[in-house]
Design a protein that fits this description.
The complex is a heterodimer of chains A (473) and B (284).
Chain A (H helix, E strand, L loop, with lengths): L3 H13 L7 H19 L1 H4 L3 H18 L8 E5 L2 E5 L8 H19 L2 H12 L4 H18 L2 H19 L5 H15 L8 H10 L3 H26 L8 H11 L11 H20 L6 H5 L1 H14 L5 H7 L2 H19 L2 H13 L2 H19 L2 H13 L8 H12 L9 H12 L6 H25 L2
Helix pairs in contact in A: 1-18, 2-4, 4-17, 5-13, 5-15, 6-7, 6-8, 7-8, 7-9, 7-11, 8-9, 8-22, 9-11, 9-22, 10-20, 10-21, 11-23, 13-15, 17-20, 18-20, 19-20, 19-21, 19-23, 20-21, 21-23
Chain B lengths: L2 H12 L13 E5 L4 H14 L8 E5 L7 H11 L3 E5 L15 H9 L4 E4 L17 E4 L8 H10 L5 E9 H12 L6 H30 L4 E9 L1 H12 L3 E4 L13 H7 L5 E3 L1
Parallel strand pairs in B: 1-2, 1-3, 3-4, 5-6, 5-8, 6-7, 8-9
Antiparallel strand pairs in B: 4-9
Classes of the chains: A mainly alpha (473), B alpha/beta (284).
Chain lengths: 473, 284
């Protein structure tokens, strides 16, 4: 569907279709609840409440109200799987369990693999290979941030690279460059988060809805990620005056200082180390294979693959598996489950159709300007509130338009939702982690200070994304 | 513990001080005694044999009891001589050596007022020296509760170890202090006591072990003909070192006494210097 007029008509038909007639008053009432939830999420820190509690409260309230208004039945839903009848409460099928299992499985797998010392080994080897030269270190840490964000998740990547940055720059006596390093790394987590389908939650949500395969996602996003990473690192080096060491004496001293890092210190068992490395490569290959159509893995889905690898990794720690369960981000998982319920209620209340109508002017701009405007709008929205509800809502709306998997609109949402996190420190979880490390290091950086420092990078990244949408997608 | 803390801990643990060897040099040795000239000559002859590891390079000078009558005068004479090593014993110009409860005003001031290493011999009249004392430096032991990154201590211990001798690098954590810390942890419900006991003890002992490994690698690379042995454990320092001196027939103990800008002797050095009177001590 490429004709803007057809797409505009499609918005109404898709998101509103199939539901009972709902009065405008009820739709507006539920829209107000959705806005209230987004505002509460934006002020999460001020409310001293976890995301899961905020969205959970709205899920409970909106479900009850939807039942009272007759939008959803209170009775159980019947599912027929083969000869078996399964009875489920209405809110259970509302949750996208595929997404939940991808996040649960991959985070468990990554946590267990991290315990093998693999990621810290890679990080320390790179540090030693840089011989303590600040510019080479910035390039190494920047590249590592991108790859770790792609393979792990952007929060874990920021934690690993950020904590190493603090330790190594203190060792080298160049803590005056710490802010520059941490800022560049924070901004690269969201760029690295664009590399694969499973690198960030908006990718998973939008990619699943769009039907973009793992390999399609990677080949489309990789050129942008490479160019933008190089530009971000170059800007960081220029703006923060991070240069190569000049004298032979300086170089020798820096090399001596980083030589003290022992990359084997965190490896308790060589077997687990190698097992972690091999299983990580296998995980990426199998996840990529799961996107090949008409295969058993494709039918089982990426969630199955992620959980299988998590279980395989946990077998190596069978006696202490409960320690890893304690480290799971249950707040994030409960947040997703509750969010899917809220989105489902909003769909039945025809709030998504209402929001879709606001997209009509953007869609009317055509396939060149339209996606660019959607990208910038998504980025601005993601910079002040959680990008996951935004991605979930837009994915649902775009899903009703019968767009092709390679439509620039999907990519506009993916780029916007990820890169928007670089505009403000609350725009993404990884920039929040970066702020924590910055403050922990004794550097004063306010909200506005971050926005001012990050603005040139965020602008460059968004401009490159818009140009990339025009040229390549 | 958050993931951030967890990774920070991993990287801090991996950031290990690397030992860099620097040969300790001795060109002037000042022997300070309150002996008669003949007794002093005999002592210096014995010292030349005992410290044959220093070779023929050092110029030996004697400062007798008549050369100083006050602590101020001793410091002045020491300053004029500008030695690389002072050799003396406890309770100069005093009868207090009969009661093993102190070092004597001259030695205490000398160790803290100058940064020149002081080799402290068993008192010549006290008859407390072990039979093998002041014979050679085949077995030298560096003693500390903070070996990690203390390159100077290791350099001096190596500098005094005879060719083909044994240099013990030791680190004894105070069991009493550790138990005091654990006792406080036991009263905090938010902290798992067993984990703290196990993990903190392991970490406290891991750091010096890693440093000794670093020393071993560097010494091997430099090609010093010295055997490095390690003792890293928890215990009561004075009792433990007394046992080690006897078990391994240690010829010389090397320890730090200065502590930054602090005027008094380093906390653990004083009881060791007072109580371990049977063999020579090198006080840095």
């Amino acid at each position: 569907m490429s004709n803007p007029a057809e797409m505009t008509a499609g918005v109404s038909a898709a998101v509103g279709g199939g539901h009972a007639e709902v009065s405008l008053g009820i739709t507006l009432f539920f829209a107000a609840l959705l806005i209230a939830m987004i505002v509460c999420l934006a002020f999460e820190e001020k409310l001293h409440a976890k995301k899961s509690v905020i969205v959970g409260a709205f899920a409970v309230a909106t479900l009850l109200l939807a039942g009272l208004f007759g939008l959803l039945p209170f009775s159980e839903m019947d599912l027929h799987v083969g000869d078996a009848d399964i009875h489920l409460p209405v809110y259970i099928p509302a949750i996208d369990w595929g997404v939940i299992f991808i996040i649960l499985g991959s985070s468990l797998f990554v946590d267990v693999t991290a315990k093998s010392g693999l990621f810290t080994w890679i990080a320390l080897r790179l540090t030693k290979a840089s011989k303590g030269d600040p510019l080479i270190l910035l390039i190494a840490y920047g590249s590592m941030t991108v790859i770790f964000s792609a393979v792990l998740n952007n929060v874990t990547a920021m934690i690993i690279v950020g904590s190493l940055t603090g330790v190594s720059l203190r060792r080298l006596g160049i803590t005056d460059k710490l802010l520059g390093f941490l800022l560049v790394e924070a901004l690269l987590t969201n760029v690295g988060g664009l590399l694969t389908l499973i690198s960030s939650v908006p990718n998973i949500i939008v990619g699943n809805e769009a039907g973009i395969s793992f390999m399609e996602f990677f080949t489309t996003a990789a050129p942008y990620v490479v160019v933008t990473s190089a530009v971000t690192i170059a800007m960081g080096a220029k703006l923060f005056g991070i240069r190569r060491l000049a004298g032979a004496e300086e170089k020798a001293e820096a090399a001596r200082l980083v030589a003290g890092f022992d990359e084997n210190d965190g490896i308790d068992s060589p077997f687990l180390f190698w097992f972690g490395g091999v299983s990580l490569i296998a995980f990426i290959v199998v996840i990529a294979s799961a996107s090949i159509p008409d295969t058993l893995l494709n039918d089982l889905g990426m969630g199955y693959v992620a959980i299988s690898f998590a279980i395989l990794a946990l077998i190596q720690h069978k006696a202490t598996a409960d320690r890893f369960y304690r480290e799971i981000d249950w707040d994030l998982l409960a947040f997703f489950a509750a969010l899917f319920i809220v989105i489902n209620v909003m769909e039945h209340a025809q709030v998504l159709e209402l929001v879709g109508r606001f997209l009509i002017p953007i869609l009317d701009l055509g396939e060149t300007v339209g996606p660019s405007v959607l990208l910038i709008a998504s980025a601005l929205a993601s910079s002040v509130t959680d990008n996951i509800p935004l991605a979930a809502m837009l994915a649902k709306i775009l899903g009703g338009l019968d767009l092709a998997a390679d439509s620039p609109y999907w990519w506009a949402v993916i780029f916007g939702a990820n890169l928007g996190g670089n505009i403000t420190p609350i725009g993404s979880a990884s920039t929040l982690v970066a702020m924590t490390i910055i403050h922990k290091s004794g550097i004063t950086l306010s909200f506005v200070g971050f926005v001012k420092r990050a603005a040139p990078y965020a602008a460059a990244q968004l401009l490159l994304a818009v140009a990339y949408l025009w040229i390549a997608v | 513990m958050t993931k951030l803390d967890s990774f920070e801990s991993i990287f801090k643990s991996a950031d290990k001080p690397v030992y860099a060897y620097e040969s300790a040099r001795f060109e002037r040795v000042l022997v300070v005694t309150d002996l008669t000239d003949t007794e002093a000559e005999n002592l210096i002859a014995q010292l030349r044999s005992f410290l044959s590891v220093l070779g023929d390079t050092p110029v030996w000078r004697h400062l007798g009891g008549e050369d100083f009558t006050t602590v101020g005068r001793l410091l002045e004479e020491t300053g004029n001589a500008a030695p690389d090593l002072i050799v003396t014993y406890r309770h100069l110009r005093s009868e207090a050596w009969r009661w093993p409860h102190g070092l004597g005003e001259y030695l205490e001031t000398l160790t803290q007022a100058t940064d020149i290493p002081v080799l402290v011999l068993p008192h010549p009249d006290a008859d407390r020296a072990l039979p093998h004392a002041i014979a050679n430096t085949d077995c030298v032991m560096a003693i500390t509760d903070h070996l990690t990154a203390d390159a100077r201590l290791v350099d001096y211990a190596l500098g005094f170890t005879a060719d083909a001798g044994t240099c013990w690098l030791t680190h004894i954590e105070s069991r009493r202090q550790f138990e005091h810390f654990v006792a406080a942890v036991e009263k905090i419900p938010e902290i798992e006591t067993d984990d703290v006991r196990e993990l903190v003890e392991a970490q406290l002992l891991k750091e010096p072990r890693d440093y000794i490994e670093s020393c071993r690698r560097v010494i091997e690379a430099v090609g010093l003909h010295v055997e490095i042995k390690a003792i890293v454990e928890m215990g009561d320092r004075v009792a433990e070192y007394r046992r080690l001196i006897e078990d391994h027939r240690v010829d010389l103990l090397v320890l730090n006494t200065m502590h930054g800008e602090q005027l008094a002797m380093q906390g653990q050095a004083y009881p060791l210097a007072v109580e371990l009177r049977e063999i020579p001590l090198l006080m840095l």
